[in-house]
Amino acid sequence: MKTRVHAIAGIIGFLSILSFWTSTLFSEVFGTPEMIAFVKNMILWGMFVLIPAMAIAGASGMSMGAKRADVPGVAKKKRMSIIAANGLLILLPSAVFLESRASAEIFDTWFYAIQALELASGAANLAMMGLNIRDGLKMTGRIESAPVRQATGSNVPVIDERDNGPLVAKNVTVLAGSDQQTLQAEPVMALCRCGASKNKPYCDGTHHDINWRAEDR
Predict the structure, then answer these.
(1) Nearest CA to 87 among 38, 53, 60, 111?
(2) In 3D, which of 187, 189, 194, 214 has the Cα closest to residue 74?
(3) Which of 40, 93, 143, 206 is the right S-S partner for 137, CB 3.0 to 4.6 Å?
(4) What are 93-133's pLDDT values in tens digits?
(5) Domain residues of the chain, as ranges?
(6) What is the structure's pLDDT at 40?
(7) Which residues are bridge partners to 167 per DSSP?
């Protein structure tokens, strides 16, 4: 249930920002001052949808990924923090400023400077959210595992080697550490292969830092 809520909220947030970004660009290039003011007003009202969606996506994502130390999980958490800061510190204040300026038909240097900042920040959030959606699909096995499902069935445990990277375990239901303590198993897990992870048995990305190669072992 939490996974579904997270996915729906994330998609709503992504589509909201995408609609804000494209409508802004279109109105600035082809629209009249009245159209620009209308779009700015609609974006401000749209925040009542975007902000709750992003809050739900962020909270559910952090909750589900609290104990994950694999590369996609860590990357998603880092991007979520940046997305939230970008939204609260840049996109929301910019939307308020631009709406007040457009409503008064004040299209001065400040308007276009903040508009450029808003478009750049919105594009950055769209890119990061797109990467989070991609990584979420990988972590749940919805992409990059179709050939395995066709060959072996959906519930058969599979361990794949990534080139110069971790072991990717799929459909493994029991995971134990070196002390035989049972650990939480996820549908898709990245497990350390280089031996340098600080969070064994999970991969924490250290193989990138030490430039590890599979032939080294």
Answers:
(1) 53
(2) 189
(3) 143
(4) 999 999 999 999 999 999 999 999 999 999 999 999 999 98
(5) 2-139, 151-216
(6) 97
(7) 161, 191
